Every structure is written in structure tokens, then in C-alpha cells.
Amino acid sequence: NAGVTQTPKFQVLKTGQSMTLQCAQDMNHNSMYWYRQDPGMGLRLIYYSASEGTTDKGEVPNGYNVSRLNKREFSLRLESAAPSQTSVYFCASSVMSTNEKLFFGSGTQLSVL
Amino acid sequence: AQSVAQPEDQVNVAEGNPLTVKCTYSVSGNPYLFWYVQYPNRGLQFLLKYITGDNLVKGSYGFEAEFNKSQTSFHLKKPSALVSDSALYFCAVRDSYSGGGADGLTFGKGTHLIIQP
Q1: Angstrom distance (rounded) from CA A49 to CA A34
Q2: What 8-state DSSP symbol labels residue A65?
Q3: pLDDT tens-digit profile of A4-48?
Q4: A45, B105: Cβ pair inside 8 Å?
Q5: Does residue A23 belong to the interface with chain B, where contact is any CB pair within 8 Å?
């Protein structure tokens, strides 16, 4: 049972480059989320998708876009990477948006030079 | 507005001793409280939650948490620590007034728990 799978695990970008972080879950969950984790700041929500076909901004959406491709997949895109986007990114899912029991992927460590 | 605080960056405990990881919160309505654990190079894992009812909540891996409304606290506890409990622990809160669900969670900064053999 894979749970939540994120790719890639590591990525180094130059300022201005673009990239897409991929996330897929095999638990038939309705809701999916993207968080960033920075030292001493806990987790902050970037975007979420309460159900297939919907996406909403979280606490820190600037510089990011998302696509809920289907029920399983939720991608995060950085159109023009900035050093401030250096972080660890986590994808998560839950049965439904009202359920706070989140299942997390193992993360993507992104460095923007 | 809701907030959560984990006052200790790091907690050191000898194996076999009881452990406590502290969490305090602030909400306008009623709190929904959660603990998550992050092992090295892994995503967070759900440990337990408090919504309403019994002030002592039991969770995974032998952990429990005590809700104290008067002190606005939700401390994580375990009677006997294991070396394998060493990890980063996050407290999270959602205000009943905020509506929604997981999108309304506020996470604390995390506490490193180190269990010494």
C-alpha cells in the first residue's frame, strides 16, 4: 500500500526556472493538500483541493499554481522559482476536507540558487 | 484568530522515563487539537486528536494527550519512552469557529524529542 507518493525527492533549481512537483495517492481520498515546511515555522498550507475539480488558496499561495488532474493526482507548479521558495514540500491527503486526519508523502527537498 | 505554541524546541528524556511534549493554544470557539509525528526523512504521521469528550486522549504507539481547558494546553505524554520515539512532534489546532477542516489547521513549530539510551 503506497499511500501518498511524491516525486522528485530532491531538486535543485536556478532562480527563474520552473518545475512541477507531482503527487499521487492510492487511498481513494477526496481531498489533497500541498504544504511547505521551513525550519522553526512548522507547516504552512500552500493550496488545497477539497474534491476533484476544485482548488483553493491556503496561507502562502503566492508564486505557486496547482492542478487537480484527477482524484488521485495533485501537482504543484513553480513558474519562476525564487530563493525564498527553498523549502521542503509535502503533499497530503484526507478522506474528505472536513477530516483533519492527514496522510503525508515523504516530501520533496527543493533548493533554489 | 487561532494560534498554537510549542514552547520547547527540544526535549531530552532518558529511555524508560516518562515524557511530556508541551503544547498551548488560542482559539475563539472550541479547539480541535491534534498531534503529528515526523520521523527523519519522512512525512508527518497522525498520532491522535481531541474534538470533545474525555480530556485524556489515547493515540498511536502508546502516546496519549491531556486536554486542559483552563490552561489552554494539550500536552503529549507517554509513560515510558523508547529510543525509537525520537522524532519531531507537531501540535496543530483548528478553531470550531473557522469552519472547514484540514485546510483550517494551524501547526506549531515542532519539538524535537530525543530519547537517550
Answers
A1: 9
A2: E
A3: 999 999 999 999 999 999 999 999 999 999 999 998 888 999 999
A4: yes
A5: no
